[in-house]
Write a structure and sequence with these properties.
Layout (H helix, E strand, L loop, with lengths): L4 E5 L3 H12 L4 E5 L5 H18 L5 E4 L10 E4 L15 H18 L4 E4 L4 H12 L6 E3 L2 H16 L6 E2 L2 E2 L7 E2 L5 E2 L2 E2 L6 H12 L1 H9 L6 H15 L4 E10 L5 E12 L2 E5 L6 H21 L2
Parallel strand pairs: 1-2, 1-4, 2-3, 4-5, 5-6
Antiparallel strand pairs: 7-10, 8-9, 10-11, 12-13, 13-14
Helix pairs in contact: 1-2, 1-8, 3-4, 4-9, 5-6
The protein binds 3-acetylpyridine adenine dinucleotide.
């Protein structure tokens, strides 16, 4: 049986880490694609990663290219093509440049690998995944955006830091758009099954929620140039792994809603089952009134950015 193939569209900060993590999990052979100007950079990253393999013994092939033909019939695409934020920028400020790139990428993936599973990471996320879906004409179950997985892992991190308990035992979810209006569902967060509301004061919890909402910006400010890449890469790899190994993990992802949570026709962060068929289910459940109101507010923000795409 031949190995599966993952194509990483964009071989920058996140792209390079995606390649490393995918290789370490032996998920598939990996092709790192970038624009011709960056071809040397992705070929170099691929070669460097190939030379890391003897330490871990992972038997996957890693190559770099700027030729779309090299990604034909890849099983999974993870798209980071575009520019990241600089301090003082909102994700929405990236729309003009990244929309043109996303349309070009979508046309090419449609030609080269029409049956693939596609994970979008480029920002502004909820609009970019929508743009990919509209331009490619892919089935909605084959297109998903990575955001909630990262926002939730950030929320988990801050809870573990506050309680001093193992991050492994913290569960929680962040729903909604990947922007400052995202919705941490704090009442459902637990540490080892114990409600977080019994472990952390209300005031502290709201400051953790606030830090989660602006966690991306906190890193952008520290970097001074560019945005987070280690945790975003791992979050997308969890999604790709669930698809390739049919794990049916439940991960908050930007999925196309068809009435779930009262949302119709938009990609937004909702609990999503990812398996061999792609997006297999969205796990709808009843939100409390204030949570639903917050979700409606984040939907308004997503609708505004999507409208600006003109799609
Ligand atoms: P960066 O290191 O700049 O890499 C982007 C790469 O895309 C560069 O190597 C570019 O050459 C390449 N590129 C540009 N145009 C094309 C094209 N047409 N085809 C193929 N490749 C192209 O950025 P990064 O890796 O740090 O971030 C990538 C994107 O992810 C940005 O838009 C970020 O805002 C976004 N991001 C999203 C999240 C989410 O949680 C959704 C988190 C962090 C970053």
């Amino acid at each position: 049986m031949s190995k599966k193939r993952i194509a990483l569209i964009g071989g920058g900060q996140i792209g390079g880490n995606l390649a490393l993590l995918a290789a370490q999990k032996e998920l598939a052979d990996i092709i790192i694609f970038d624009i011709p100007k960056a071809e040397g950079m992705v070929k170099g990253k691929a070669l460097d990663l190939m030379q890391l393999r003897p330490h871990d013994g992972y038997d996957v092939n890693i190559t770099g290219t700027s030729d779309w033909k090299d990604v034909s019939d890849a099983d999974v695409f993870i798209i980071t093509a575009g520019i990241p934020r600089k301090p003082g920028m909102d994700r929405e400020d990236l729309l003009d440049i990244n929309l043109g790139i996303m349309k070009d990428v979508a046309e090419n993936i449609k030609t080269q690998a029409p049956n693939s599973f596609v994970i979008v990471i480029s920002n502004p996320l909820d609009a970019m995944v929508y743009a990919f879906y509209k331009t490619s004409g892919f089935q909605s179950k084959k297109v998903v955006g990575m955001a909630g997985a990262l926002d939730s892992t950030r929320f988990r991190t801050f809870i573990a830091m506050e309680t001093g308990l193992s991050v492994q035992d913290v569960t929680c979810m962040v729903l909604g758009g990947h922007g400052d209006t995202m919705v941490p569902i704090t009442r459902l967060a637990t540490v080892g099954g114990v409600p977080i509301t019994d472990l952390i004061s209300k005031e502290k919890l709201s400051s953790i929620e606030e830090r989660t909402r602006f966690a991306g910006g906190e890193i952008v400010k520290l970097f001074g140039n560019g945005s987070a890449f280690y945790a975003p890469a791992q979050s997308a790899i969890e999604m790709a792994e669930s698809y390739l190994r049919d794990k049916k993990r439940v991960i908050p992802c930007a999925s196309l809603c068809n009435g779930e949570f009262g949302i119709d026709g938009y990609f937004i962060g909702v609990p999503t089952v990812i398996g061999a068929n792609g997006v297999e289910r969205i796990l709808d459940f009843e939100l409390e009134k204030h949570e639903q109101q917050a979700l409606n507010q984040t939907l308004d923000a997503v609708k505004k950015t999507v409208a600006e795409t003109g799609l």
